[in-house]
């Protein structure tokens, strides 16, 4: 019994040492790092208007922020891919959130994860006749968490 335990312990040590040696496959290489980053932001309310969405979101510790997302961003072409995707929030305890995707620090797209049912408390409607400013912007750099 002692021989079996000793041989298993020796085998474990030998295998552990073999895998702990740095090789080209397990070394950190900055060339392999991705250049895409994600920022997840909790959504408090989304107001729907004819030409865009007004999104109120939670900042890091306290306070709220507001941004406007044009609906035209959801239509893409080969030259100008979609900048807006609306994803259905599955039923459960998960709350609505917004994902801001950046590539090399530049805005790439925004994903709104909200309930599909517009009767949900997250959804609202902009007052009729109200003018929504900011629908002509090209990126979503105004989302600040602090």
Structural class: mainly beta
Q: Which stretches are poorly predicted, pLDDT < 50 over at least 5 residues? A: none
**Multimeric status of the protein:** single chain
**What is the count of DSSP helices, taking H or I runs of 4+ residues?**
1
Shape type:
elongated
Ends apart, CA distance between termini: 62 Å
Rg for CA atoms: 24 Å
Helix content: 10-25%
The overall pLDDT average reads 86
- Beta strands, count: 7
What is the beta-strand fraction? 25-35%
The ordered string of helix (H) and strand (E) elements is HEEEEEEE
User: How is the main sheet built?
Assistant: 7 strands, mixed
Overview of this structure, please?
It contains one helix and seven strands. It is mainly beta. Strand 2 and strand 3 form a beta hairpin. 12% of the residues are buried.
Helix/strand layout:
Elements: H1 2-20, E1 36-48, E2 52-58, E3 64-70, E4 84-88, E5 97-103, E6 106-114, E7 123-125
Parallel strand pairs: 1-7, 4-6
Antiparallel strand pairs: 1-2, 1-5, 2-3, 5-6
Entry summary:
With 146 residues, this protein is mainly β.
Core attributes:
146 residues
């Amino acid at each position: 019994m002692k021989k079996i335990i000793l041989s298993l312990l020796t085998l474990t040590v030998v295998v552990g040492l073999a895998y702990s040696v740095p090789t080209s496959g397990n070394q950190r290489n900055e060339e392999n790092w991705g250049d895409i980053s994600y920022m997840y932001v909790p959504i408090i309310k989304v107001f729907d208007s004819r030409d865009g969405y007004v999104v109120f979101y939670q900042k890091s510790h306290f306070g709220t922020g507001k941004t406007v997302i044009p609906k035209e961003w959801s239509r893409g072409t080969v030259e100008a891919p979609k900048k807006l995707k609306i994803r259905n929030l599955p039923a459960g305890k998960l709350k609505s959130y917004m994902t801001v995707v950046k590539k090399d620090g530049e805005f790439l797209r925004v994903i709104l994860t909200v309930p599909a049912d517009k009767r949900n408390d997250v959804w609202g409607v902009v007052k009729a006749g109200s003018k929504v400013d900011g629908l002509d912007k090209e990126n979503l750099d105004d989302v600040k968490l602090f």
